Amino acid sequence: MSYTKIDADILRTLQPPRLTYYGALGLIGIGFGFGAYAFAQQWQTGLGVAGYEHPILWGIYITNFVFWVGIAHSGTLISAVLFLFRARWRTAVARAAEAMTVFAVCTAGLFPIIHIGRPWLFYWLIPYPNERQLWVNFRSPLVWDVFAITTYLTVSAMFLFLGLIPDIAAVRDRCTDWRKPIYRVLALGWDGSSKRWRHYNSLYAFFAALATPLVVSVHSVVSWDFAMTILPGWHSTIFAPYFVAGAIFSGLAMVITLLIPLRKLLKLEEYITIHHFENLAKMIILTSLIVGYAYITEFFIAWYSGSMFEQGTFYDRVFGQYRFFAWGMLFCNTIVPLFLFSKTIRTNLLWLFVISIFINIGMWLERFVIIVSSLSHDFDPANWPVGLYQPTWVEGAITLGSFCMFFMLFLLFIKNFPAISITEMKEASDVPEPESA
Amino acid sequence: METTYIRGIFDSGRTAALAITAIRDADLGTVTAYSPSPNHDIDHALDQVTSPVRTFTLIGALLGCISGFALPIYTVYAWPLITGGKPLISIPPFVVIAFELTILFGAIGGMLGFLSLSRLPNIARPSTKLAVDPRFSLDRFGVLVACTDSQHVELIRTALDETGALEIETDA
To answer: Mind listing the pLDDT tens digit for each residue in B65-109?
Structure first.
């Protein structure tokens, strides 16, 4: 594939979109606006408009937080870990996955703020010298979260931007419309000189090396929000690996959910091929099996521990009032992915898309089950609520708004920046045939 | 003598690397290459040393690690509050903070190193108009030679021509 063709094909995706794009963006924008309106209601009225009721004081918002942090992980896995392993197939999908990571962390980061009672004081979570002479509690996993998420967002955003610099320069050099001055500023004056490539390559490798431990650490820290408590259903040493595997699993499913429409919309079938999807599907099989094993281990630990509280919680999980969610989670995350063992299914994009949606739903349910069903069945039976936790329209609207915000950011990104790395595609492709030979 | 710039445009990294090797071997001038993507042939021909970006990353990471321990330790002494009979300086939880700050500061240090070493944002006027060409981000490779010896100019042009340059331009 020649450099000229790569340039032309990828830069074509930045041409003014069709009406359907604006239609989709408009619909998503309405959803986002609805979520923002609901949050404004909550801001004005107080957290009482959410369906929290003792003892379920972590609900949909924290479910969404864990879900979106998890979604981010596969992007880093693809862009950083597979880079270090020199998996060449990642080139075509890494940019979209990296962008997905940044947008997912942005979305996730909003939820702890939405969840706290006085969101306008969210900056109290950040340690800084203040007139109250108070510092945050560094022994609290919630503060670890602040550090983990801030680090993840900053490093992911810088990694994405670094990869974009030469590509933005390519866009700048071809762009003729009103966006040219913007690309000129964002390209930072990149000229493709050997000196700059040398530093660029070095930093890119270091970013990959620095982001790799984040794949493991960030969701481990998120899991410790739960595991460091003594609540049955949460207090478990397997939580960190269990959450990390689940995060990569859900993120890979989201990558597939995004990439299948993306390649169709941007006509990138030649670049993002069935081979890429098959590789992603194989990684889903692996992570699904790890997640399934973790589910079994959780039940085994509950039984083997001899603790009546643990046993009670896990019995309640599958036979109690939240059983439908638990069985839904088990079905979506452990049974449905098994279909991917069939090559026919994992190379069929329609099937793959449907399975990825099932996994997205299953992983959201997993977080819901872990959080809500455990909280509803704590040590004291007098605490146990009679009915199900019932989220209000505010929680529903904010959840919808978060999905819309994520897809909106992604849609805006793919029409303004190359969704595939031009530079890496050129590097991976054969050198163009010399005309002078 | 003033510096003269001679630029050859190539359609592959391999031929550009041949030109670079020929010019560097004969010590005809200072060579800068331009390419649409990183190119190993050009890297080898230029024989570049490892980028010092790694030093910036290391310094950042070390600062992050030290800060990650220093900040929690300072704060627990600023307001000593024993909880659960645990020591004020609880190393295991502080490791999490130190780990995250090591990564964060390492990445920021690396980024700052990259920007400063690469002189980005690059707002300065280039030393010659030949240093900028939109084709360098498309499909062409540039070899720019800065030469202060007028007798070398023709030798450089010949080297560029013999190694397959599609265009050769000079800017005095």
So the answer is: 999 999 999 999 988 888 888 889 999 999 999 999 999 999 999
> Which residues on A lie below 8 Å from B97 (Cβ)?
138, 143-144, 147
Q: Left if phi > 0, otherwise alpha if psi is -120 to 50, otherwise beta: which for B85? A: left
The dihedral region occupied by A118, where left means phi > 0, alpha psi between -120 and 50, and beta the remainder, is: beta
User: Using the beta-carbon criterion (under 8 Å), do B110 and A203 form an inter-chain contact?
Assistant: yes
Q: Which residues pair with B167 in a beta bridge?
A: B9
Topology at the third CATH level for domain B4-50+126-171? Alpha-Beta Plaits (3.30.70)
Would you call B100 and A148 a contact, using CB atoms and an 8 Å cutoff? Answer: yes
DSSP symbol at A193: B
Q: Is residue A274 part of a domain?
A: yes
Model pLDDT for residues A54-113, shown as the tens digit of each residue: 899 999 999 999 999 999 998 899 989 999 998 888 999 999 999 999 999 999 999 999
Assembly ipTM = 0.95
Burial of A298 (0-12, 13-18, 19+ CB in 10 A): buried
Domain count of chain A? 1
CATH number, residue A347: 1.20.1630.10
- Shortest Cα distance, chain A CAs vs residue B172, angstroms: 20
Q: Which residues of chain A have pLDDT under 70?
A: 430-437
Q: Which site among A206, A237, A420 would you substitute to test the B interface, given the most B Cβ atoms closer than 10 Å to its Cβ?
A: A206
Question: For the whole model, what pTM was predicted?
Answer: 0.94
